[in-house]
Every structure is written in structure tokens, then in C-alpha cells.
């Protein structure tokens, strides 16, 4: 109103800058004309424009979605942008994307749903056909003030930047690089700089990602001054009065180097001499498989000794760059290894809890490492066990690579494997599921027994398998079973035909230790560590 009163007689020479005449309606409706000059004009700016279009739209939608407590689907937003930019040229429109200023103004006005866009469109149609004369006297400063006020909340404050620094210092450095390049060069160069540096940082983290070797420690759950059991209402004792044999104790596995930020004063025990637990940290795919497995083998070579220094059957089997120790060197090496008391390699437990999927290259490299360590441990074989598999396709790939069941040692001795399974209850003994499971287990066990006997008869081996009395093996007689009440039925979490796949690290470690001792690899008279978990 003030602008109209001041400038109504000064339309050609207003006292201050005003919006001026606004064209009425759609002036350029029709098929857009595209020629080589136009293409050559916008082609150099096309990559930056697309990046800005996509990033700005998604950033706006997610930012205001968090403010107004709703979620967005990026794919749906991209479809909306595509449809808009396909139709806009036929109406004389510019390439468009989400706008920080218009979105901020709507948010200030109380808009909460996308239906506001429909109302905005109707108002725009009404304005460009019926209200263009009113827009003539709107001061440009008023429009700028509205936009500046709406955009004020989107400015990154110093305390927010400091919070970003605490979360990820490298990304704050990238942020400032983008700001300085944009201010002193151009927006396009700022976008290219930040995108390229972010891509390099991401690739570096993936390529250099390596796992952690885990150690075992026994912990208790403490509430106030009391130690609790499985139930938080079950008080086992006061803090400081419990001992290592308490039933409330449980085993947890932490990185030996305390890379997870755990208390460095916590003493982590080795799981077992010659048994290693390795957890992947950044997945297990082609980019980081080589680095992760190199770290795995180097760590094992430093902490174990070769099972047999004369393991090469022929002179040509020794690697070309390994001259081999002389007799004097062999004697000195044997004496040094005896002094260091390094164990031989017995088993490797891989924790796949952070692995979502694998690819052909990573599995092939894992096979190569398995063969390398089998030669290192010859004439024995390394017991590979895998725990915490989260993806059935990962499990399928490992099975295809011959992981999950014992490998043939290739010698004349038939090792007896002690398979320890994790069993989950499914109901009482009278349930239909229990009966079906019992019949299936009996058929499968009978089939395995027949196959084993046939193989022994063909090869002339004996003593590899034994008939086990279920009553005597469990240590419970029929009378004791009756007194104990009805049996509860259960099923194995992983298949019976994949005994080297485990649901957790505790069962994997228990099984690895049992097999190492059963195969006579444990030191005579050594006491196996406690691997129980409550």
C-alpha cells in the first residue's frame, strides 16, 4: 500500500526499486526449440546442475521432514523432479528442483503436508492470470526480506559446526573446502571439489578397512552394588564378592587391541592356544578383501609356528623366494620357537556379524587363504568356523566354497569330529512339530550312519564312527527321564549338514576347542579354558 501511494504517479521512475510489470499467463506454451548453440551453451554446466538438483531436493525434503516428523522416499522425489522437468519446457518453464526459500516460507506459515503444493499451484494460476497488476508496486526489498527471514533458520551456526567436528572431523574439513572454493571460484567448482573429496574418502575407508582379532573376557551384570543373573530381579551377590565360577558370569568377545574404545585395563584372554577369532569391520567384498585377509595371515604368522618345517614334499614345492633354512638355521629356529612357546595353528573363527553380502572375488581370496594356511599347518588342516551369518546368500556362497563342514585331511587317519550344535526349543514332546522333527532327525541320522559305514567298508577304515547309546551318552537312565518330566523338543539353528556354521561366537569356540582336543592337538595335561555362557 505504501509503495502504491508513493509510486502511483511515478510508474516510469519509481522512488525505489519495485517488481514492475509481470507477464500475464503462459507466454511461451508450445514445443521447445533445441539447437546446437543451446546445447553447447548449457552442456558444460549440466553435471553440476544435476548434482545440485538432486542433492538440494533430497536435502530439503529430509531436513524439513525431520523438523515436521515425517519421512520421505527419495525415489518418489526423483520421479516427481523428472516429471516436472519433462513437462516444464512445454510451458516455458525453467529447470526446477526443491527450493530452500519457498520451502522455508511454507514451513514458517505452518504447512505440514505435500497437499500444500496443490494449493500453491492454484494460487499461482490465479495470480498470473488475474493479479499481475497488483504485483507491479511490490518493493524488491520486501521480497528479499521475506526470503532472508525464512532462510535464517537454515544457516549453520558455529555450535552446529562444532558438533559436526566432534562427530566427523574430516567431513567438516570437506565442508570448509567446499565453502572456500565456492566463494573464491564458482558454485560448480565447489560442488565438484566436495563430491570428489567425499568419494576419495569413502573409497579409502572401504579399501583400508580391516577386521579385529577378538579376545575373551568374563563379565557380570551389575545393578548398583549387586550382581544380577539372567533376570534383573535375581540378585546373585554383592559387587566384589562374586568369583569366576558364578553362574551369572558370561563370556564376551572384545578386540584385543581395544580398538572399540573399551577399557584398556580389562585383560583379554586369548580364546585358546592356536585358535583365533577374527571379526570383519567394513564388510567383506572385493575392495577390502585383500587388505583384510593380508592382515589376518600376517597376524597369525607372527603368533604361531609352522607345524612341520619339513612340510614340503619336494624341493620344487618351496616358494621361489624362500631359500629355506640351513641345518644350523633350522636348529636355531627350533630352539627359538621352543623358547617363545608359540602354538601351532589349530582353528580360525570368522565373525560375519558385520558382513551383509559377499562377492566372487572375496570368496576366491578366502579360499586362497584357506589353502595357504592349510599348507602352513600341514600335515594338519585348519579348522575354519564361521559365526553370526546374517544373510542367506552369504551362507550359500560360503557353502559353495566348501565352508561349513569338515574338509578331508587327505591322510590315512580319519579324524573324529565333535560337532556341537546350537538347539532352540520348539515345543513339547507331544506337539506335531516335535514328532515331525524327531522323524526327520532319525531319518537323517540313519542315512549318515549308513553312508559312514559304507565309506569305512570301502576304504578299510574302522573306528571312525561308533554307535552311541542315547541313554548312556546323555548320562540319564530311563527312570531319571521319567522323573524329569516330559522332554522339550528342539531344532538346530543351522543345519546338521553344516556343523561349522554357528549362531554365536561362544558355540563356535566351544566346538573348535573340543575338536582340537579330540584330534590330539592340545598340549598334554593342559586344561581347556572355560567357554560356558549363561
Automatic annotation (TrEMBL):
Q: Which cellular component terms (GO) are annotated to the entry? A: membrane
> CDD domains, from UniProt?
STAS_SulP_like_sulfate_transporter (cd07042)
Question: What are the transmembrane regions?
Answer: 38-60, 109-128, 164-184, 190-207
Record region (Disordered): 438-489, 512-534
Q: Which residues form the STAS domain?
A: 273-375
Family annotation (InterPro entries): SLC26A/SulP_dom (IPR011547), SLC26A/SulP_fam (IPR001902), STAS_dom (IPR002645), STAS_dom_sf (IPR036513)
Instruction: List GO BP terms, alphabetically.
Output: transmembrane transport
> Where is it located?
Membrane
Membrane topology type, per the record? Multi-pass membrane protein
Where does the source fall among the domains of life? Answer: Eukaryota
**Record keywords:** Membrane, Transmembrane, Transmembrane helix
This protein's record includes keyword Transmembrane: yes
Q: Which Pfam families match?
A: STAS (PF01740), Sulfate_transp (PF00916)
Q: What is its main location?
A: membrane
The answer on whether this UniProt entry bears the keyword Transmembrane reads yes
Q: Where is the composition biased (Basic and acidic residues)?
A: 440-460
Q: Tell me what this protein is called.
A: Sulfate permease
Species annotation: Colletotrichum sojae
Amino acid at each position: 500500500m505504501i509503495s502504491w501511494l508513493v509510486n502511483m504517479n511515478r510508474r516510469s521512475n519509481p522512488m525505489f526499486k519495485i517488481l514492475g510489470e509481470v507477464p500475464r499467463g503462459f507466454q511461451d506454451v508450445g514445443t521447445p526449440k533445441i539447437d546446437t548453440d543451446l546445447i553447447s551453451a548449457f552442456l558444460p554446466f549440466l553435471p553440476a546442475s544435476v548434482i545440485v538438483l538432486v542433492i538440494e531436493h533430497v536435502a530439503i525434503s529430509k531436513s524439513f521432514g525431520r523438523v515436521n516428523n515425517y519421512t520421505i522416499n527419495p525415489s518418489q522425489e526423483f520421479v516427481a523432479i523428472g516429471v516436472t522437468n519433462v513437462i516444464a519446457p512445454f510451458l516455458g518453464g525453467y529447470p526446477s528442483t526443491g527450493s530452500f526459500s519457498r520451502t522455508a516460507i511454507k514451513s514458517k506459515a505452518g504447512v505440514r503436508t505435500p497437499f500444500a503444493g496443490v494449493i500453491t499451484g492454484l494460487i499461482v494460476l490465479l495470480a498470473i492470470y488475474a493479479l499481475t497488476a497488483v504485483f507491479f508496486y511490490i518493493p524488491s526489498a520486501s521480497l528479499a526480506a521475506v526470503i532472508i527471514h525464512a532462510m535464517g533458520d537454515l544457516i549453520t551456526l558455529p555450535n552446529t559446526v562444532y558438533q559436526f567436528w566432534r562427530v566427523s572431523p574430516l567431513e567438516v574439513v570437506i565442508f570448509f573446502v567446499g565453502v572456500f572454493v565456492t566463494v573464491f571460484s564458482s558454485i560448480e567448482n565447489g560442488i565438484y571439489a566436495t563430491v570428489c573429496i567425499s568419494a576419495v574418502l569413502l573409497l579409502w575407508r572401504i579399501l583400508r578397512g580391516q577386521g579385529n582379532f577378538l579376545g575373551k573376557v568374563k563379565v557380570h551384570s551389575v545393578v548398583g552394588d549387586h550382581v544380577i543373573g539372567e533376570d534383573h530381579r535375581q540378585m546373585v551377590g554383592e559387587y566384589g564378592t562374586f568369583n569366576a565360577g558364578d553362574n551369572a558370569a558370561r563370556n564376551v568377545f572384545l578386540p584385543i587391541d581395544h580398538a572399540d574404545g573399551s577399557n584398556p585395563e580389562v585383560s583379554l584372554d586369548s580364546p585358546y592356544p592356536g585358535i583365533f577369532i577374527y571379526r570383519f569391520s567394513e564388510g567383506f567384498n572385493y575392495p577390502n578383501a585383500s587388505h583384510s585377509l593380508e592382515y589376518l595371515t600376517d597376524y597369525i604368522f607372527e603368533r604361531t609356528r609352522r607345524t612341520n618345517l619339513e612340510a614340503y614334499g619336494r624341493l620344487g614345492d618351496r616358494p621361489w623366494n624362500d631359500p629355506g633354512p640351513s641345518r644350523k638355521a633350522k636348529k636355531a629356529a627350533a630352539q627359538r620357537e621352543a623358547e617363545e612357546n608359540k602354538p601351532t595353528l589349530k582353528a580360525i573363527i570368522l565373525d560375519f556379524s558385520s558382513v551383509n553380502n559377499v562377492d566372487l572375488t572375496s570368496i576366491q581370496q578366502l579360499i586362497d587363504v584357506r589353502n595357504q594356511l592349510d599348507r602352513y599347518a600341514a600335515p594338519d588342516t585348519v579348522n575354519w568356523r564361521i559365526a553370526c551369518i546374517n544373510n542367506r546368500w552369504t551362507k550359500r556362497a560360503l557353502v559353495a566354497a566348501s565352508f561349513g563342514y569338515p574338509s578331508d585331511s587327505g591322510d590315512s587317519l580319519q579324524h573324529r569330529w565333535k560337532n556341537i550344535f546350537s538347539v532352540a526349543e520348539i515345543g513339547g514332546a507331544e506337539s506335531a512339530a516335535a514328532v515331525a522333527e524327531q522323524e526327520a532327525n532319525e531319518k537323517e541320522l540313519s542315512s549318515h550312519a549308513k553312508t559312514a559305514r559304507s565309506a569305512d567298508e570301502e576304504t578299510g577304515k574302522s573306528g571312525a564312527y561308533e554307535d552311541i547309546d542315547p541313554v548312556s551318552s546323555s548320562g540319564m537312565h530311563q527312570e531319571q527321564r521319567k522323573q524329569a518330566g516330559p522332554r522339550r523338543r528342539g531344532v538346530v539353528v543351522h543345519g546338521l549338514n553344516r556343523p561349522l556354521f554357528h549362531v554365536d561366537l561362544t558355540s563356535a569356540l566351544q566346538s573348535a576347542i573340543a575338536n582340537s582336543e579330540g584330534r590330539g592337538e592340545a598340549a598334554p595335561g593342559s586344561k581347556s579354558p572355560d567357554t560356558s555362557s549363561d
